[in-house]
Write a structure and sequence with these properties.
The protein is an alpha/beta fold. It is built from ten helices and eight strands.
Length: about 280
């Protein structure tokens, strides 16, 4: 009996030790799990010239001295969409989204976060917010664009960046597409056997940021989203202040805007017409 108890205790200690090592590994490797600038590559595959759009190369310096790269694609109207992309790849993987906005008549300003594409540095949550602030300063300062002509757009991870910015500035409106309420929330759902809320070094609290936004908000989400469940979009919408609009689309996390092209463009056009 003593032998069995000792063996059981030893086994439990081994399991506990392995679990603690796993927690330490998850804590240390979080940046690489959340920010994926090399998936598929940091190299730019193409430029807007590949879809027959004129563009300007832009390089900004953030408040902490990091150089950030982006493109400004001029459109037909004075209105500009400030575009914050998701956690993987770079601006060259968003060409068809850029074209969609351009076909709606808007200019597009899209940046790569620090550590992505041709931008310097390494991604951090506060760093991404500084990148967003620099992009806003470029549009409203260097280019002299009226804040009321800027629509802030964020897809997935970019939804947290866009909502953070819109909570601090006064753009024409905010669009949050396929985003999560927060990193701890989505992480806890993905890994229910880990104390994610305790371990998380990042917040990216989209729902909290949206609750502080005072301009019109459009939330876009698909019931078919296999990465960020639909209820995240519903919760973000519930947290938003009026005036607000919800657009339900179909399709997966990365192709919903393509699978629902007609509904998506009509919904965007309708929202823009209210601003």
């Amino acid at each position: 009996a003593r032998y069995n108890a000792a063996a059981m205790l030893k086994l439990l200690l081994i399991i506990a030790g392995a679990y603690l090592l796993l927690l330490a590994f998850v804590y240390v490797t979080q940046p690489g799990m959340l920010y994926l600038p090399t998936l598929p590559s940091r190299d730019l595959d193409a430029t807007p010239q590949a879809i027959v759009l004129a563009f300007e190369e832009v390089r900004l310096e953030t408040s902490d001295g990091v150089e950030v790269h982006g493109w400004f694609v001029p459109g037909e109207s004075d209105r500009v969409v400030l575009y914050f992309h998701g956690n993987a790849g770079n601006i060259s993987h968003r060409l068809y989204s850029i074209r969609d906005w351009h076909e709606l008549g808007l200019s597009v300003f899209i940046i790569d976060y620090r550590g992505y594409g041709q931008s310097d540095g390494k991604p951090t949550e506060q760093g991404l917010y500084r990148d967003a602030a620099a992009a806003w300063g470029y549009l409203t300062g260097d280019r002299g664009i009226d804040p009321g002509d800027v629509v802030v757009f964020g897809r997935s991870l970019g939804g947290s960046v866009a909502s953070w910015l819109a909570a601090r500035e006064q753009p024409a409106g905010l669009i949050v597409e396929s985003s999560f309420t927060s990193v701890p929330d989505i992480g806890q759902e993905a890994y229910p056997w880990l104390p994610v809320r305790w371990l998380s070094r990042f917040q990216h609290a989209t729902r909290d940021h949206v609750s502080e936004v005072t301009v019109p908000v459009l939330v876009v989400h698909s019931r078919d989203d296999e990465i960020i469940p639909f209820h995240h979009g519903e919760a973000i919408f519930a947290a938003a202040n009026e005036p607000k609009t919800f657009m339900e689309i179909r399709g997966g996390h990365n192709d919903g805007h393509v699978m629902s092209a007609t509904v998506y463009r009509d919904g965007m056009r309708a929202f823009l017409s209210t601003l």
